Amino acid sequence: MDYVTNLILILVASAIVNNVVLSQFLGLCPFLGVSKRVETAAGMGGAVIFVIGIASFVTSVIYKFILAPTGFEYMQTIVFILVIAALVQFVEMFLKKSVPSLYESLGVYLPLITTNCAVLGTALNNVTNGYDILECVISGIGVATGFTIAIVIMAGIREKIEYNDIPSAFKGTAIVLVTSGLMAMAFLGFSGVI
Amino acid sequence: MNKNIERIVNGVWKENPTFVLMLGMCPTLAVTTSAINGVGMGLSTTVVLILSNMMISALRNFIPDRVRMPAFIVVVASFVTIVQFLMQGFLPSLYDSLGIYIPLIVVNCIILGRAESYASKNPVIPSMFDGIGMGLGFTIGLTCIGIVREILGNGSVFDVNIPFLDNYHITLFGLAPGAFFVLAFLVAIMNVIRKNMEKKGKPLPKAVGCTTGNCDGCPSATECTGKEAK
Predict the structure, then answer these.
(1) Is the CB of residue A38 less than 8 Å from the CB of residue A155?
(2) Residue B5, Cβ neighbours under 10 Å: how many?
(3) Distance from CA of A167 to the nearest CA of B (A)
(4) Is A171 in Cβ contact with B104 (below 8 Å)?
(5) pTM above the 0.90 mark?
(6) How far does the CA of residue A146 sit from the closest CA of chain B (Å)?
(7) Mutation test of the interface with chain B: which of A115, A116, A128, choosing the one with the most B Cβ atoms within 10 A?
(8) ipTM of the complex, rounded to two decimals
(9) How far apart are the first and last CA of chain A?
(10) Rounded distance, CA A20 to CA A17, Å?
(11) Chain-chain contact of A77 with B77 (C-beta, under 8 angstroms)
């Protein structure tokens, strides 16, 4: 039971309290780049949940069973980035062949995630925190859910901002960053929860 | 002007990665809570950038075009691991405060961007100076943002308290939201400068970073979006 509580705590902490975009600044590129419309933002979020979930599992398995027993822990950065890049390619090919319907909805976002720092950051954080394999997967899904929450809210706000009268200097990225700052303030309120 | 000096001027001033090109925004926002962190992150990125530029330029005729991105990533990741070890050994306190953002130098778009757009096409010495220029430009950018955030958020500069100001600081600027606000104002100021320079007929190079929300002209577009560059 304690273990289950622990898992739930990890999920909530990584999704909301330590939100990956708004408090750790990982995955800012897709957050700013793909948040113009709610549908695309949700699609991106879905793809991120999918990839980070799988990547957390694979990297933690590799760390536990290959790197740690052989004493090659310091190779983690190189190994993880290559594994993630290969994994995304593989997932893309697999989805294209076997689950075309899922590929239709996530396909365009998958390659965008390869160099997304949130994926590598989550894998490295999992190792630093000393999670076991299930905890890694849960924290990965939590991080990605947090990303999805942030990007979907952002896209909703941006759809409204389109029609607002903004000072010309702030048009475009600047107003989006101000909005992200306000959202980050709101998420700061969760910091005492856990 | 000497070509090597021209590369340094280009990186520090004309195509400054932080202010003009808007590249590498994740570390820019994350580590600039204080000026000293900005300097540390900037210099470690500079070291990786110089070494990886030289290595990639030296190997540019041996790396097959199809596998160049994975090859670049391996080179960069190796140097990042070395820098990480050196920092852990000699600067443990800076290592702790930068934390996970040191290994994340691997995915910093400045490094892969320079590898793709400059080092893989030019000889070793100019590539080295390109790395020095871009790295110094990035360091200056991070340090400036770090100084602004430290003054506003903590009332100090490089951990030295400023008289009077240290009682009237806004802690928010040291936290996550402050990073977004400071960057928002930076982008807004650059928008105004960009417009003025265009009126004068001397347009600045286009911002290419992810913050612009459009991948046209970004050197890393190929490996981010999977599409072949135009």
Answers:
(1) yes
(2) 11
(3) 9
(4) no
(5) no
(6) 16
(7) A115
(8) 0.88
(9) 18
(10) 9
(11) yes
- What distance lies between CA A147 and its chain's CA centroid? 5
Q: Do A177 and B181 touch (CB under 8 A)?
A: yes
Residue B62: how many CB atoms within 10 A of its CB?
A: 7
| pLDDT at residue B219, as a whole number | 55
Q: Residue B157: beta bridge partners?
A: B160
A33·B180 Cβ contact <8 A: no
Q: For chains A and B, count residue pairs whose Cβ atoms are closer than 8 Å.
A: 143
Report the distance separating Cα B39 and Cα B44, nearest Å.
9
> What tens digit of pLDDT does each residue of B39-82 get?
999 999 999 999 999 999 999 999 888 888 888 888 999 999 99
Give the Cα separation of A89 and A111 in Å (integer).
7
pLDDT attached to residue B229? 41
Q: Which two tokens mark B59? A: 């190997």
Residue B104 and residue A81: Cβ atoms within 8 Å?
Answer: no
Cβ of A174 within 8 Å of Cβ of B187? The answer is yes
Under 8 Å between Cβ of A35 and A155: yes
pLDDT above 70 covers a percentage of chain A that reads: 96
Q: How far apart are the first and last CA of chain B?
A: 32
Scanning the structure block, which residue is given the tokens 């286009």? B206
Q: Which of residues 193-222 of B touch A (CB under 8 A)?
A: 210-215, 220
Hey, which residues 43-102 in chain A have their CB within 8 Å of chain B? Answer: 74-78, 81-82, 85
Residue of B nearest to A24 (CA): B30
Amino acid identity, residue A17?
A: V
Would you give the DSSP letter of residue B168?
Answer: S
At A172, list the tokens: 């475009």
Q: What is the C-alpha separation between A129 and B112, in angstroms, rounded?
A: 28
pLDDT digits (tens, 9 = 90+) for B174-208: 888 999 999 999 889 988 988 888 888 878 777 77
CA gyration radius for chain A?
18
Partner A contacted by B117 (CB < 8 A): no
Are A169 and B70 in contact (CB < 8 Å)? no
Read off the DSSP letter of residue A135: H
Q: Which residues pair with B160 in a beta bridge?
A: B157
| Residues 119-148 in A contacting B (C-alpha not used; CB under 8 Å) | 120-121, 124-125, 128
| Cα-Cα-Cα-Cα dihedral sign, residues B73, B76, B79, B83 | negative
Burial of A71 (0-12, 13-18, 19+ CB in 10 A): exposed
